[in-house]
Structures are given as structure tokens and as C-alpha cells.
Amino acid sequence: MPDRTITELTIRRPDDWHLHLRDGAMLRAVLPETTRHFARAIVMPNLVPPVVTSTHAMEYRARILAALPEGAKFTPLMTLYLTEETEPADVRTAFEAGIATAVKLYPAGATTNSASGVRDFDKVRPVLETMAEIGMPLCVHGEVTDSDIDIFDREAVFIDKILRPLRKKVPDLRVVMEHVTTSDAVDYVRDSHKNMAATITTHHLIINRNHILAGGIKPHFYCLPVAKREAHRVALVQAAISGDKRFFLGTDSAPHTDPNKLQACGCAGIFTAPNTMSCLAEVFDVAGKLKKLEAFTSLNGPNFYRLPPNEDTITLIKGDPVRYPDQIPTEDGPVTVFDPGFDLHWRVEG
Ligand code: DOR
Ligand code: ZN
User: Burial, 283: exposed, middle or buried (Cβ in 10 Å; 0-12, 13-18, 19+)?
Assistant: First the structure.
């Protein structure tokens, strides 16, 4: 029997192990939505131009710190965007000096601002070997980009064609497969006993592909990797609520203004930063697994990244439905907040 009797839950303050903060006006508008609940976040480097070198990462980190709301305690954990020109020595310096926590691999063309990503994996082998030596994680956008591969198969094909061979060549490399969307990815990670973990987003625990396409097209549910069929969503929920150390939260909260989402060729990305913790509490509560929420949001991530969990806590309280704004205003236009399609009964305190 699921335990649905809990009405208050105190957990270590969560971290977000995959987040898009953007820059400029958008950064200033969305950053408070994350710092309200989260202590740290792995910050994605897909700016225009991308965050490629340790110098870029230092400069971007300074801009994030300058945009922090008054009194916020938040540590941005920076990533370097892997290109075929990335220098192993620069990656080593960035990691050893605490400038960057991870390197991000986008297959070229996989998603928003990924044109400078990797085409020939042999070209980045020296960087990957350096990372394996120093224990620096590689965050992977796990989708092939071949136009002849069906978009719903791109993650599964990536595992077979790219990830398995790459991990055979560099077995000591520590890899996070990000925003997994399929049972294939869950099984692959679960069967990997060393150096492998996965992040799961809030929205992929809640929506399947029907939410995007049935009864009219819903651009606010469009993201990459695209949500798959219901059986895959169920596999993701099972992984998240299992407590298995290899699975942890990476929201992939990815703000785009409404004009950029709502057009003939709209941007990929779902903005979940404001209501993520309420959404997750609801998902774990409905599954009767609230006691596993802390592992997913606050313990398994630090464990993989070899960082201490946060000392302070947040408290989730169940009550009447909580309202979040439908949109966040920015100087560039409104950004729509993720609508889970059900009432959120859990509010966050502290
Ligand atoms: O939906 C997505 N949006 N997926 C990504 O991989 C990138 C992100 C973005 O930057 O907007
Ligand atoms: Zn992302």
C-alpha cells in the first residue's frame, strides 16, 4: 500500500544537476526562481557564443553571481561546452582550479545552440582521457542527430552507436546521461555498475508524447529529448522513486520567451524552475514514495559529483492547491511556466 499519510516532509536542500540560466535580462528574470529552493546547479554552457574555455566559464559565473537576488546563497557549478577544438590542458586547469565541475557533450545539431558540438568523437578522445584521469564528469546530451533516425528513437540509438563504444574506449570516464526519456536509457544506466549516472527532468516524469500532440499541438510541452510514450514515462518514475543512487534530478528548466516558443518553428525547452519541487512532491506522493524524494533531489547528485550534500533543509507541506504564476515576465517577453495539468498540493517553506 502506498503511504499517502505524510503531510509534512523536511529534506536537505535540493540541487539541480542540469539547468539553463541563459544570460542578460533572461538570467536576471529566471535566476531567483531557482535560488528560491535550490542551493547549487550544474549550469549549461549553450549560450551564444557557447561557454567553451575556462575563461568563458569564469566570466559567465561572475555574471551569474552578479545577478543573484539579495541574500541568496547559491553556488553555480559551471560546465564547459565540448568542441573538437577543446584543449585537454584547459579542461584540467578548469577542473583543478574549481572553475568548472563538468564538461558538456552536445552531438552537433542535437538541440538549442549545439552547432559547435562534436561530430567526430575520435577528435575529443584526448580531452575525455584527461577527464577520466582527473575524475571530471562528462554530461551527455544523449541523442544522435542523423536526420534519417526517427526523433523518438534518437536516444536509444545514441546508447548503442555512441555511448557504449565511447565508454568501452574510455572506461574510467565518469558519465552522466542527461534528461533520460526512455526505458532503454534507464535499463542501460541501471546495468552499468561503474562511472555512470543519469539525470531525470521534472517534466519527463509528468508528460508523455500525447501531451504534446493529442487534441492540438502544445508548444509549451515541446523539449529535447522529446517526451516519449507512456511506458517510458512510467519507467522514469520507477527509476526516480527507486532511491537508486545513479538517478537524480536535473530539471533541464530551459526558458524561452513565448514569442520564441509559439511560432511555426518554435524553440525546444520547458521552464520548470518555479514549481519543480511542488511537482516532484506530487509525483512522489502519488506513488507513495515521498520518503525517496530526498535521495532523488538532494543526496544522489552530490554523491555522484563527489560533493557533500547541503547542510540546510527545506520543508514541504501538503494543503490546499498552491498557485504558481502562469508566466514570468522578462525584458524580452513572458516565459510560460510548466503546467503539470493537475493540482499541486505541496508548498515549499524555507
Ligand atoms: O528542450 C531543450 N532545451 N533541450 C535541450 O537540450 C536544450 C534546451 C535549451 O537550451 O533550450
Ligand atoms: Zn538542457
Answer: buried
**Cα dihedral across residues 330, 331, 332, 334: positive or negative:** positive
Ligand 1 atom at minimal distance to the Cα of residue 110: 6
Angle at 179 between CA 68 and CA 36, to 5 degrees: 25
Residue 85 belongs to domain spanning: 8-349
- 252 catalytic residue (yes or no): yes
Nearest residue by C-alpha to atom 7 in ligand 1: 112
CATH number reported for the structural domain that contains residue 47 in this entry: 3.20.20.140
Q: What is the pLDDT of residues 103-126, one digit of tens each?
A: 999 988 777 777 778 888 889 999
Ligand 1 shell residues, CB under 6 Å:
20, 46, 111-112, 141, 223-224, 254, 268-269
Ligand whose nearest atom lies closest to the CA of 201: 2
* Catalytically annotated residue among 16, 90, 184, 252: 252
Alpha helices in the chain (DSSP H): 24-35, 54-67, 88-96, 125-134, 154-158, 164-169, 183-190, 209-213, 230-241, 258-261, 276-286, 293-294, 300-305
Nearest 5°: phi and psi at 151?
Answer: -60, -30
Closest to 145 measured CA to CA, from 134, 135, 137, 157: 157
Q: What is the model's pTM?
A: 0.97
pLDDT in tens, 148-190: 999 999 999 999 999 999 999 999 999 999 999 999 999 999 9
Any bridge partners for residue 103, and if so which? Answer: 80, 138
Q: How far is the CA of 252 from the centre of ligand 1 (A)?
A: 7
**CB neighbours (10 Å) of residue 316?**
26
Mutate to test the pocket of ligand 1, among 224, 251, 336 (most ligand atoms within 8 A of CB): 224
Within a domain: residue 3? no
Does any domain span residue 1?
Answer: no
